[in-house]
Amino acid sequence: MENSNGGRGVRGRVRRTVSKGNNLLGSAALKNIPKCVLISWLDACHEFGWQEGNDDIKSEIVPCVTIGWLLGESDESIKVCQTWTVDNHAQTIVIPKGMVLYVTEVNAFGDNGDSIKAESKNK
After folding, report:
1. In the chain, what's the furthest Cα-to-Cα distance?
2. Cβ proximity of 43 and 62 under 8 Å
């Protein structure tokens, strides 16, 4: 399906609304939910296959941004996950602190613990 700007994807706009007092996790679970953080960090870059010549060796560092639920932190690393439930978590990444530029806490639930709900409005 082609959208209005010529790209592929779902038609329509996503509208963000705040749902007052309607948390899917419930208030007890929200007390134990990890902090949501945005991490700006530098990643290593790998080039595939043989490279020609040895005189023009370029070093590329890839800037990355990861957002997730803070599971743990040590002197050497930060561990976050993409998905968190009361009993489980998934899609974890451990980022060495030597590669981290900054960490910012994100308010994922609005001012009063309200959930933010995305509604698809098809044209």
Report:
1. 62
2. yes
Do residues 51 and 59 lie in contact, with contact meaning Cβ atoms separated by under 8 Å? no
What is the edge-to-edge ordering of all strands in the sheet holding 36-43?
89-96, 77-84, 62-73, 36-43, 100-106
Distance of CA 63 to the CA centre of its chain: 14
> Please, what CATH class does the domain formed by 34-45+59-107 belong to?
mainly beta
- Arithmetic mean of pLDDT, 3-23: 45
Amino acid letter for position 105: E
The model's pTM: 0.64
Q: What is the pLDDT of residues 78-106, one digit of tens each?
A: 999 999 888 889 999 999 999 999 999 99
Please tell me the predicted confidence (pLDDT) of residue 42. Answer: 95
pLDDT at 51: 75
Cβ contacts of residue 89 below 8 Å, gap of 6+? Answer: 69, 71, 81, 83
